[in-house]
Transcriptional regulator, AbiEi antitoxin, Type IV TA system (Proteiniclasticum sediminis), 202 residues
Amino acid sequence: MDAKSYIAQMEERIDRAQSGSAFTLSDFTDLMDYETAKKSISRLEKKGTLRRVLRGIYDKPRYSNLLREQAVPDPDRVAHAIARNYNWAISPQGETSLNVLGLSTQVPADWSYYSSGPTKEYPLYELSIKFLHRSNREMRGMSSNTLLMIQAIKAIGQYKITDKEIMILRKSFTTEELTLILQEGQNTTRWIYEVIKEICKI
């Protein structure tokens, strides 16, 4: 298969993705070998289809009608692209989890995640993405949705969650996801699980 055909396959995958989606070379190695993916992604960067946001990480630029220019990269999507690149399990923590779930409109300067990888920080424009190491044992047995909900509840605090926040959390997940969260969350702190049970009432 020639280079044009490989690039066409990559462009088709990128076209199907939402604006703001982040990619790494490993996202395309099912289509081609690593070196071909590297050359192809470089060509798509020059074409403007992709934008390099960090070493080895690219996004499909979003256009801001308000600013009349490309918007800054989506920190959460970039964080997950980094995690895929290194095969880390990650979970947003603190204010980051609230922002991801729409419980806060305040954009944090530091986007923080627990990670099965090393503690590390990545500068991203005027923001930063921080990974704080946690052992696989601490993250094992829970899906990313369960970990996300637990961190959001912790960030809100005991006795502070409102009916509005419960409704937002309930609507953030499908019925199937809520069922799994209810099952997986049994081993978390008791007060957090009591909140999870309230959220997962269907």
In short: The CA atoms of residues 53 and 124 lie 7 Å apart. The mean pLDDT is 91.
